[in-house]
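We store sequence, tokenised fold; for instance:
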Amino acid sequence: MKTLGIIGGMSPESTVTYYSEINRLVNQAKGENSSAPLLMVSVEFSEIVACQKQGDWQKAGQLLADAGKKLEQIGAKGILLATNTMHKVAGDIIEQINVPFLHILDATASAIKAQQLNKVALLGTRFTMHDDFYRDGLEKRGITAIVPDDRIQLEIHRIIFEELCVGKFLPESKRFYLNTIDSLMQQGAEGVILGCTEIGLLVQQTDSQLPFFDTAQLHSQMAVDFILGQ
């Protein structure tokens, strides 16, 4: 098996999901007491959040690139960034490492195409929904993403940072997300990208008739395929 390096901590809640899911899938594939050979650098999340609020993406990119380089130096054969939003600076990491980078948009777009869908709702942080990097990245991969209006984006963002990232899962917030999904379905959404790695902790596939694309789960499967050399 190949050793995978994970840049985590954004947030710790979702990083736990990555760690447990990757190990579960490796064990499912290999059996007995098999687990995934993983290395991790867990960044200080408040530093990243400060960069986001200040719009200092250059500093954020360098912090994460440094983490990627450290993982490569201690033996990682590939790098995974365990968050959606910070893929905004994926290019900074890719430029400074010499091993494969497992991009979350590749995993997500592949799953959407496998179901022959073209137009999907995108939920995530304000940066993911509002900035061009995520929607443009999907467009280049043949997927059109639609997002809610600014007011709803702000509330989705608030719930992620003030609740989900610190382990709060409130029923009223779940209702808000599901109502937003229903509204986007009326606008033509054929599926829903859970484009923040915490959202899948709040809403699940059984909550909606639209197919969900949980990016943390899809990215974890991509990680396992890499680890197992598939």
